[in-house]
């Protein structure tokens, strides 16, 4: 140990005596810190200076029309970028932009095509198209700039997309809000509609039965209309015939009235004759009865009496014939034909009314005439009997005068009865028969007039009725077709109504329309704001790093310490003069102390300078400095051991190890992003643990990590010391021969 210390103290004395050596060593002490500081400062905040990065923007957008509103997203984008200073935006034309990007004057160009707004507007159509931007980048100018410009382009796209989405969502939620208000207003109607659907579902089977019933009734009505249509010609014929018959009968009545007018004087004359003759007979019989006539006078009286009786009988017979004629006239009047009217075709008076009125009046007339005919028959019989008795008186008068007088009395009684009967008959004729027959004719004429008017009305109505029947039949056929179509569509309608009702019940069970209304009612501006940024990233920096330079400080600090080690082994010798008086192990540790001292100084300057000169924000300043000392000691041991044991080969090995560690330690990129080879060697590289330890001190300590990093680093340093102390004596003679051989080439010192 004394020998080791002797070597170290000798080196210190030599440095203090040789100012050139002291200056060189002083330079070696400061050089690593310069390496670290320049790199850290250069990368201090590159992303904070992107406003110096020129990027061309070309707007060729022609705008578009959406529902009578003009939109120009390209112009809006340009206006927005003019207020954005994150990148040095250059607004120019396409040709100029592409030329400058190609020449490297601009790092990238963003071109808004002429159909940009037009494609965005297709969102309101049934076939929306995505709008595109053209992005040109010259990647050969710089490896980082394209990434930054790409971020800028992505930010533009994101901004446009966000604004577009926000605007669309604002419109949508405004519509939702209006829809919610309308739903809230129409809620009673919606509930009524639901009840209507349920009611329809319940009543549809009844509707089907009703349609079937109506269809059946329509079939029956169609059959009745067909029958009526078929009977229409016959109805026309019967009406025409009825009118003809009525007119003919009215003619008969006129004739009967004329005949009655002609008979009345004759009947009255015959009645007067019969009455006169009857009186004369009575007078003659009184004279015969009073007078005491001889045979000649009696014969004369009897002859005159017989003539009078014959005249009376003839008069009564004429009256009887005239009464029979009156009876026939009265029957013709009472048997006036009543036309049969089709009650379906036109309104008619009931047949019973016409016939009833005729029957009532004709019955009285017929009875009076029949009584008169019977009376005239009796008169005629009485007169004939009286005549027969008178003739019997004549035959018996010669021998039986007394008996003849008795017969005369009988004849006189008969004659008186006849006279009374004639008077009674005359009264009956004038008071009953004549007025009754006249009334019969008048009633018949009135009835026939009514029948004629009725038939005329029917005849006038029949064409219109025929049209109505034809039209009704057509409409009824159309109605039947409609009903049949409705019945054919009924299963489909019933199925759909049932499905709708089931769906409404299902929706009612799953969703409350009031909840839907609450969801639709909103503040459009608030919803727009929400969809502009629906998710807020609440960043929690567990170990905040102030800037990019601070984040790179651990890597560049560790790297500068290793570089400082390489500088030392390049300028300072790992061997001593007059080494023969010391063992190889003593030489190894004696010169190692000098290297470690210089390394400690390098580390102190670098770490303290990072904090004080650059102003790096370090969470654990003391830990940062102490970690630097530990790392410097370990690295110096590694590099010194390699060079001390292997000579120039060891220098090459240290450089190779540096290269591997820069790439594989995760100093710039996470190890997981590196190729598999570097991921594989990363756990075996000192840089991995040195950088991690410095990061813990810079950002904030996690005890578990430093508890892993420090032992590994100490272990590596200790292992290298053991390696150097044991192998240097073994390999030194062989390595010296190699060194001597290489110097013989004149290429190596």
Q: Classify the secondary structure makeup into a structural class.
A: mainly alpha
Provide the domain count: 3
| Cα-to-Cα separation, first versus last residue | 31 Å
Largest sheet: 4 strands, mixed
CATH topology of the largest domain: Four Helix Bundle (Hemerythrin (Met), subunit A)
Write down the secondary-structure element order: HHEEEHEHEHEHHHHHHHHHHHHH
State the shape.
rod-shaped
User: What Rg do the Cα atoms give?
Assistant: 75 Å
Helices, by number, come to 18
Q: What is the residue-averaged pLDDT?
A: 77
Low-confidence stretches: 338-354
Query: What portion of the residues fall into strands of 2 or more residues?
Result: under 5%
Structure description:
With 749 residues, the protein is mainly alpha-helical. It folds into three domains: 2-40 and 547-658 and 719-743, no CATH class; 52-185, 3-Layer(aba) Sandwich (abc type-2 transporter like fold), CATH 3.40.1710; 248-471, Up-down Bundle (Four Helix Bundle (Hemerythrin (Met), subunit A)). Helix content is 78%, strand content 3%. The chain is built from 18 helices and six strands. The strands form two sheets. A four-stranded mixed sheet has the order 4-1-5-6, sandwiched between helices. The protein has a two-stranded antiparallel ribbon with strand order 2-3. α1 packs across α2 (19-42), α2 crosses α13 and α12 packs antiparallel against α13. The longest helix is centred in the first third of the chain and has 146 residues, at 145-290. It is rod-shaped, with a radius of gyration of 75 Å. The two termini are 31 Å apart.
